[in-house]
Amino acid sequence: MDIDTPGETGIFADDHRHLFWVPAFSKSFPLPFRVLTLLGLGIIGWATNLHLLRLLGVDAYGALVKNSASLRGQNDGFPSSSGGNKREQDRALTASVYRLFLVYALWVGTGWFLFRYATGGDEDMINRYRAVPAILLAAILLGILSPYSFEKHTRETFLQGCRRCFIPSFSQPTYFCDIVLADIFTSFAKVFGDLYISAHQIFWVGYVTSVPAQKGMLQLIVPTMMSIPYFIRLRQCCIDYLVSDRRSKRPLYNALKYATAFPVIYLSSAQTIVIRDLIAEKGEARVLATHWHGEHTLFRLWLLFVFINSIYTFWWDVTNDWGLSLLEPSLWWPILRGQQATSSQSYRSLPTGDPYDASSASDYPISHHRAYTNRTPDPQVDGTPLPTPATNPRGSETFYALSNGSTSKLPRPPGLRPHLLYRYPRVYYAIITLNLILRLTWSLKLSSHLHNVTEFGSGVFIMEALEIVRRWLWVFFRVEWEVVRKAELENVGFGLALEIDEDYELRRRDGKEPIVR
To answer: Where are the bilayer-spanning segments (predicted)?
Structure first.
């Protein structure tokens, strides 16, 4: 949404009143074009995710395709993950997404250039040609649905994933690929709201240089649109809980994470009530001179849920989505009690290279904080192969496989996990820190009332782009953890695997498709 409109306009002004001063950012880059730009950023982000994961030696293709043999061969938009051509399929998929982005960028970029040329920055001309971005988006939607052969398989894969997200099956668990897609949707929550605002600007109020007042039905529809991605993900968690015969509470805790976003979104929309109440009490000049209204209960509730949502989602990212132990109480409790944390764990960074070549896995021994049952890995298992674990008496060391086949030993990095597919532990710490900062920013960005603050300029657009970047980084570590966990589970005995992931084993015991969150 736009934040270039003065505060009083966004709250109280008539929908059809134009501003005496329109910020340059809104003239050169109206909200509908910002929506199209953010969508393009998501496409190129996904293409680079797939590309870099392959270069880093992570079998993203094997993790993202559905592995259920009963579903292979169905027309669900997923090729079989078995066979010797999986490497070529991965590369073909990445190249396909790149080509789609190139066509998208050329189409939108040309449209924006012609729009700028035709309007010349004049407000009346901008509003006269306001239908241009709508035409661009309509053509994109037609292209996605097109029966022509251009990147048809990739387009169908995306459409099938969207169908499963919006119209899920209530009798089977959620697949990892659909979880990743739904989580990406949550990073586009604000774009969902912006999309409706753009349509309202183009087809109802007749101008795109300023945001219409959020009142009446608009005040309800915009936060509801923003809530759709969180509802999708929450519903997936509830389905997972029911499919597991209610034996695992973890999906409920995960659902709670997405549920905390709803109070942030709707309490933000309710901040107009705060402004009206305080204006009646203090006068308009005093109230609009500041953005802090801590004396009002609704404002304090909004801040409380912003904090809860930010901290809970950050903790879940690190502990559950990435499988890191940095925020686990067992790591910090001894330190808080004045004791030195000890561990018998030894961490090992797996070598990078071709994730589809089993010979790229090193045979160097590693230690693990869980006991392993030595057995031959299942050849049908997709994912980066892990070596057969062995006991290493020096549990405080980290083993890093070098490109020449040798190993180097370093002190064990605290708060990570036994298997690291990325070589440098400091990268994990840097991404954790950055994720916390962007999580706090993102929770604020879910607050639609902040878009009416003029002095932030293009701030909300930057925040939306940063959230997409945060999700881009999140995908690298989420897919890495999925690959590591699947490989670990296939290299341990059944009883010990339950210690690693209760949900996974409960589904294997019932003969159901495993689900990863």
So the answer is: 29-47, 97-119, 131-150, 299-318
The tens digit of pLDDT for each residue in 112-136 reads 999 999 998 888 898 999 999 999 9
Closest listed residue to residue 99, CA positions, set 91, 19, 226: 91
Burial, 296: exposed, middle or buried (Cβ in 10 Å; 0-12, 13-18, 19+)? middle
Three-state SS at 380: coil
What's the pTM value of the predicted model, to 2 decimals?
0.79
C-alpha distances (whole Å) from 5 to each of 290, 426, 440, 453, 455 are 16, 42, 24, 7, 9
Q: What is the pLDDT of residues 48-57, one digit of tens each?
A: 999 999 999 8
Nearest CA among 144, 166, 125 for reference residue 39? 144
Closest residue by Cα to residue 214 from 13, 454, 446: 13
The Cα 233–Cα 275 span in angstroms is: 32
CB atoms within 10 A of CB 359: 8
Q: How far is CA 144 from the centre of its chain?
A: 22
Q: Please, are residues 160 and 78 in contact by the beta-carbon 8 Å criterion?
A: yes
Q: pLDDT tens digit string along 217-256?
A: 788 899 999 999 999 999 999 999 999 888 889 999 999 9
